[in-house]
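Moderator note: this is an archived Q&A kept for reference. The question asked for a predicted structure of one protein chain; the sequence and the answer are reproduced below.
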Amino acid sequence: MKRISVFFLLLITVLGQVFTQGNQPERSMNKILYENCLELISLMHETALSEVYGSLIPNDSLRDKTEELLIHIRNSQYDTPKAVYQLEFPEDIVSFALQLMNMIDTETTEPPPHIKKKIYDTFISALAFQLNSMEGGVLNATAASAYTEEQLFVAPEVKQSGAYLFIYKDSIPVYVSVIVGKDGAVKAQGVYVFCDKTETLSDEDVFEKFSPFGIKSVTKVNMP
């Protein structure tokens, strides 16, 4: 666990100094992916509204402390997104991370493709938890973890793993990681991103929030 924490700490520190925001061409989000993301976010909100589910969180003290965050979620509205941003990850993030940890000699050794994909997918899936932890400590990370959801579906048109940030008016944003598997299988994981200015997140705000994690750019996508 300590090794993993060091990995993310070093990755955040160094990558944040390497990549900058760039202008990206206009693009549209795949309709099947978009619809499943909306369904996922709806399920997340349904879970947050459930007092029965909330009562199952085992730590009473932690449950009391996360109540304020939960109230913000419950007061949010997740109908039509105000904006959807696609996060652009650097292509060499896996090899860079491995070099950073001195795990491979890049001149003689290259990890198998499935290991590289595992590292890449894990980084994408864990990013929102790391962001919540960095900005709000264990409290935000715990609340985000308790109310995350996953959605499995088939979408052969979705070819690459990635991540999106869904922004709603006066509501807590949702980070959705998209992991592509075999035979068109896709797993989407939704995580609430707790922040202080959900009403005024601009393109620059979104990039600023994620750039310390190596995101080289964010692109507002057209919704189907």
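Archived answer notes: The radius of gyration is 18 Å.
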